[in-house]
């Protein structure tokens, strides 16, 4: 039987490293990827975040109900809020043969790894911790307290990068996007459907 399921790509990295920036640039070029929109209990950032585009924004009670009903593929509490991946969209897309892209923090990624080891785990790192701090500060979306907490988390997260299949330094956006694209292409070559089809053909030929 030919396996035509899609591949699950997981992009993690500390807050402010540029995951969202790299992902958006990647999606402008790769229209075959499907982005899994996360659910969160954090409030919308000022400046245009939208329900169903950036996140599904829910109350703590609604989020906990989703957990209770086992509707989350993974979830984590990060700096005081829940973040998680609704299971249904990912399952449906993978089954239909589409690649799915998750942009999530480390605790959640490790849960996915346990349940979905065939996923491809990519860790984005900043060129330096100083530059990471500059990026969060310059983005201007977090209070001073939140910046301190996110940078604390960043240290713990970076320690986990060995658990990932690939590490990409986001020094220059175009280079980082190109590297992530190469990873997507390599994984397709590795699991090539063409190779599987050839094997199936050879088996038929042998009979
Ligand atoms: N290679 C880069 N060089 C300089 N600035 C960058 C680079 N990549 C991203 N940035 C900037 O860094 C800031 C943080 O980027 P972004 O919001 O994409 O990070 P993130 O990892 O998605 O953060 P979070 O996890 O908090 O959502 C943004 O202002 C973005 O424009
Ligand atoms: N475990 C999960 N983490 C997620 C998910 N969606 C986003 N995130 C990560 O949370 C932090 C904070 O996000 P922000 O939008 O408040 O800056 C960041 O690292 C995100 O990548 C998710 O579904 N699950």
From TrEMBL:
Q: Where in the cell is it found?
A: Cytoplasm
Keyword match Hydrolase = no
Identify the EC number(s): 2.7.4.8
- A GO term, aspect molecular function: GMP kinase activity
Name the Pfam families for this protein: Guanylate_kin
Bilayer-crossing regions: none
GO annotation, cellular component aspect: cytosol
- Keyword Transferase present in the record's keywords: the answer is yes
* Record-linked CDD domains: GMPK
Q: Which UniProt keywords apply?
A: ATP-binding, Cytoplasm, Kinase, Nucleotide-binding, Transferase
* Reactions listed under catalytic activity: GMP + ATP = GDP + ADP
Can you tell me which residues bind ATP? Answer: 13-20
Function field: Essential for recycling GMP and indirectly, cGMP.
Q: What is this protein called?
A: Guanylate kinase
Q: Which organism is it from?
A: Gracilibacillus boraciitolerans JCM 21714
- Taxonomic classification, please? Bacteria, Bacillati, Bacillota, Bacilli, Bacillales
